[in-house]
Amino acid sequence: SEVVFLNDNTFEHQTQASTGATTGSWFLMLGASTGCEACSKLKTIFEELGQDETLYERSIVLGSVDVNDSPTTAMRFGIKVIPSLLYLHKGHVYRFPTDIERSVESMKEFVLEHYSKSPAEPIPPPPSALDELVDLWNKL
Fold it and tell me: Using CA atoms, how far apart are residues 71 and 79, in angstroms rounded to an integer?
């Protein structure tokens, strides 16, 4: 299936992440569309993974978020390094380990099975307007 492009305005509606009434499991790449060579490399691998039938059959949707256009989503998931890979599954976030080479095969193994070896973090709720205001204030 195709990679779904998400942003701050569409993220929660598309993924239904905080409600638990998910639209399937989501494997997300959070990166930047410009100025990030590692993001460009990973995007190619990620798009190749999107052609995998097994993921489609298991209702695993691939999504991409440009953190420059979606700072609220990046803040919500505590993204400090790009590109980052997150797996949203059954109300939890699993972070793809940074010590594993990012290949189609390793990412596929992660979402189908190895995610369970990573810590399960509860999916954070969308930030409130107050959270966003405080974040903006802290950046001044």
Answer: 9
Helices 37-49 and 104-112, axial angle in degrees (round to 10): 60
For 95, counting Cβ atoms within 10 Å of its Cβ (0-12 exposed, 13-18 middle, 19+ buried), the class is middle
Per-residue pLDDT reduced to its tens digit, 57-76: 998 999 999 999 999 999 99
Quote the radius of gyration of the chain (alpha carbons, Å).
15
**pTM exceeds 0.90:** no
Q: What span, in angstroms and rounded, lies between the C-alpha atoms of 135 and 25?
A: 29
Question: Could you tell me the two tokens for 28?
Answer: 């997300």
Could you report the per-residue pLDDT of 18-40, keeping only the tens digit for each?
Answer: 766 656 799 999 999 888 999 99
| Cis bond upstream, residue 83 (ω within 30) | yes
* Distant-in-sequence, close-in-space partners of 59: CB < 8 Å, separation ≥ 6: 24, 25
Q: Are 25 and 58 in contact (CB under 8 A)?
A: yes
